Amino acid sequence: MQLSVGTDSTWSLRAMIGVKIAELTVDLHVFSLQCASCKSVLRSLSPTGLVPLLEDGSLRLHDSLAILEYLNELSDGKLYPADQGKRALSRSLCAEMHAGFSALRQTMPFTLADVSPLTVFSPAQTADIARVTTLFASAEGPFYQGDKPAAVDAFYAVLAYRLQHYGVRLQGEAGKYQQQLVAWSFLQEALTQLTSTAACCHP
Fold this sequence. Notes:
Layout: E1 2-6, H1 10-22, E2 27-31, H2 36-45, E3 53-56, E4 59-61, H3 64-74, H4 84-99, H5 102-107, H6 123-137, H7 151-165, H8 172-183, H9 185-196, E5 198-199
Parallel strand pairs: 1-2, 2-5
Antiparallel strand pairs: 1-3, 3-4
């Protein structure tokens, strides 16, 4: 399998973390999304011209949520809890991350470069942060649904990092889960891979 990802791409990070949870091996290709030639190559590879893109034989998956679902099937269910109810909740939370938190995405663009901490927040930002706080405070252990990492942790780890990067440190139980995600080795390894292996053309 081959996984194509891009620099400064939150969805790429989620797919990369999903691969680690699934304990699968992929050939990782990191594209610089600031490079025009890279974008041209991506348009020839991906149906949308976007990352992440997972290729397995003739199969091409170009959506992070679909990629994690596929990785879950390949790994005999490592990305979702065995309990049916918890599994449904996990999928619901992943879908919420996939489609929601637009105020944070628009006003806190993901970057690995240094940024100035935010000190003033709009009503929309405040509402998104309140929702994140409620979700994070519901974590049942070091990971969202207990002791084992799952897809929901892969999806929210990037948001935890984004918030901290802009100076937003949650308090109480929500803060504990945020810090667990930020320090998580799978996230840190993925961040390092994005910055250390980016190429300006396809291998």
